[in-house]
Amino acid sequence: MTVxxxxxxxxxNAELLAKVVPVEDAVKHVVHGSTVAISGxxxxxxPKTFLPALAWHFSxxxxxxxxxxxxxxxxxxxxxxxxxxxxxxxxxxxxSPASRRRIHAGEMDFTDVHLSAFARNLMYGFYGDIDVxxxxxxxxxxxxxxxxxxxxxxSAEALARAKxxxxxxxxxxxxxxxxxxxxxxxxxxxxxxxLPLVNVRDRIGTPYVEFDLSKVVAVVESRTPDHPVPFxxxxxxAKRIAEHVIDFLLRCREQYQWGKRLPPIQSGVGNxxxxxxxxxxxxxxxxxxxxxxxxxxxxxxYVEDDQKFEYASATAVSFSAEGxxxxxxxxxxxxxxxxxxxMWLSNSPEIISRLFVIAMNTPIExxxxxxxxxxxxxxxxxxxxxxxxxDFFRNAxxxxxxxxxxxxxxxxxxxxCVMPYVRHIDHTEHDIKCVVTEQGYALNMDxxxxxxxxxxxxxxxxxxxxxxxxxxxxxxxxxxxxxRASDMKVLxxxxxxxxxxxxxxxxxx
Amino acid sequence: MTVxxxxxxxxxNAELLAKVVPVEDAVKHVVHGSTVAISGxxxxxxPKTFLPALAWHFSxxxxxxxxxxxxxxxxxxxxxxxxxxxxxxxxxxxxSPASRRRIHAGEMDFTDVHLSAFARNLMYGFYGDIDVxxxxxxxxxxxxxxxxxxxxxxSAEALARAKxxxxxxxxxxxxxxxxxxxxxxxxxxxxxxxLPLVNVRDRIGTPYVEFDLSKVVAVVESRTPDHPVPFxxxxxxAKRIAEHVIDFLLRCREQYQWGKRLPPIQSGVGNxxxxxxxxxxxxxxxxxxxxxxxxxxxxxxYVEDDQKFEYASATAVSFSAEGxxxxxxxxxxxxxxxxxxxMWLSNSPEIISRLFVIAMNTPIExxxxxxxxxxxxxxxxxxxxxxxxxDFFRNAxxxxxxxxxxxxxxxxxxxxCVMPYVRHIDHTEHDIKCVVTEQGYALNMDxxxxxxxxxxxxxxxxxxxxxxxxxxxxxxxxxxxxxRASDMKVLxxxxxxxxxxxxxxxxxx
Lengths: 509, 509
What we know:
homodimer; alpha/beta; Glutaconate Coenzyme A-transferase; seven-stranded parallel beta sheet; five-stranded mixed beta sheet; 19 helices; AcetylCoA_hyd_C_sf (chains A, B); acetate CoA-transferase activity (chains A, B); acetyl-CoA hydrolase activity (chains A, B); ActCoA_hydro_N (chains A, B)
């Protein structure tokens, strides 16, 4: 086919240039029953041209086709939405309403795995053969190795393990050469090795991905930039949570003699995370480092300030439309202050522990003992998945779970995000060192039974309106170091009282 | 005081020899409010003379005294029992009936932490100052550094952080020189470093512990050998579980192309663990390596067989009376085939992951989705604690939870160890790859929603007698990928049916 000059500029390898085909042809390599592993993490670097074309192809030729789709993390709805009807099995993370509906209905099998483990399991062969890898790249080098784009996720593992490879060359964005640090995990019976990484800025791999060129069955062009993600500004609640987090960090600096060096920060996404990143900028901490999953809008101002900021490591950048423009404006400067790594490495327990990372994430709800539900509404229906929260909470130097103390539901009720128990546990009390809400923070760092810790979490973190109900639960919970009410009738009464309280919450309606 | 010649032989350092005092004097360094960190792990290497003497001292002089007691893991009841009335705070693991009673009654605060995290938290200062370290040693070297005994646990951290040190020189056992590999974890703001350990047999530290001699306030002699632990022989159920485990491992060897090299094995304690270790010996696997917490009776025969066995790494040896004698008989031979390390290292996520360890532990109960309760009866009352199960399950190459499908209670009922939900979760479904009972095994390694996995766990692992009840729960659980019944009345009905079933179980009395 005729290859545009823009595309030619991005493909320096003649063998692969000869494999450029229209996407309509490329999608035929995926058939019913295929396992497909793709690039993409928090809507960045996904195959934005291939997947919608594949969905169209299936809808026209084989509406009964079903595939297994594996990605780094979430895809944009423009990409996953049309594909959802054709996905039988999905992992390890999604935020697609279309997929979620099918998962809840039992039409799509979804496996929720720690992101670091997922990438390694893929290499170990636990998910079987990878039939086709579809990976977005920004450039194909002379020897055929590739430069990825705005995310790394599982791209390198997909290219290493797939039987067939489709490369999607994105000509709409810049050439990302210099942003990546690529290295594959060891696989038994090969001997594992210590990762020679002791600073956030250390690079231990290559800036490109090498793989077996003979497996490439198609190269397609994409002219679609990453779909922007909404930027959630901090509200008053988020700001108060952020204040408590900064307070806690300042207290730790004093108590544990950090000196001027704040340990590297991992921060989730959302408005609370944005508030924390914002207030951290205005805090006394200098030379801040991020060891995190996603580099986002709120971190952009750091890149402009060499006093405030030292370095960031992530597996993806993910921006609003405005943030993306700002990022592109300082693209060259960013290259010296930001590195993107495979998600097994960004989320590596070994590195998170070694670097003393401070982890912060928002759950759906916490319980009075410090157990955390990050994934399932009513304990039954998955929202997005676990992502990397477990990788970070478990291995962090300090693990902070932050949530508003209440949440307003669409039906008008206001529920407590601090509950007597949560019906799906993703992170146990063993992994959480600090619970923060806009009310305050409670520590789980000393030698103290869960029952006494609970008093603290209720009195410092729960909304005052719900505190009497939570204390009432604890009073009736009976003996034990971490007592749980077991009498069903009593429990039923508690839930009835709680339900009435959620309807009578003062700010409701 | 007069020092016996046996003791003199063990103390080569003159400064410390001069500090030998009767234990009755040494205990006075511990006072009401002290935080005391001691040696000891699974009843091995504990200060067997000091602690009972301290308990006697308190009972005679200050019955109101309360201290914080931190150890590696469990102590023998001879040691912890007398002390229990004087312990206000305890961590991170215990198996003492006396302590357990006080914990359940809310008289003793107990903190349950992953063992690897506990040792690091101690170094980080999260548990505050350590007033006194009491550590059993087998020899004091010329320069004052010490050789530990049958366990390492937190001994090195205790010696590093304590303000005062009491050394308990055990003259009843051998000189353990050559068995240990001692290294301390890095503490922020020092830079963490990669652990240069890529084989089970690699040693990365020193065979002795160095510390500030000026902190030693007393040296006491102990003539008490480690209290023996009961050896639980494998019953038929344990043997059938072990057969399924070996089957699973052989299947993995084939499927994941291990060749002849079985990844290192971590094995818990108890009769199922003994059955597995026993059958592993009779399996086709050769050159077996253990990367585990405790080296026990069942592993002794390996040491005699260079074909079957390569090397073992643990943080303690723990034997029955008979096992201990056998171990002493081949003490020199063992030295070349076994190393004891600090528990932060034996349980290090970095190393467990790098070495592709296969982890196996017994829980109290599992649920149909693969969540595991390892610690709390009825979700409320702690048994022993988490120990290292989370360190190993989370970071293992393969994580295997094994349990009999039913358990007979003292009241005559027979309960199912596979439940619709467990009321305390220590390990989530995300961390478990294989559930084994004497009925069979179910995998959690592929891309599959929890609801479908549940069908498998019920049909392959639950006792046939309880399967209809478990399916009934799943049928009423409603929509979702991991559905949980939420209607309290329906739930109440299910529990009533279940309770009746536990009483009517065919083999019951």
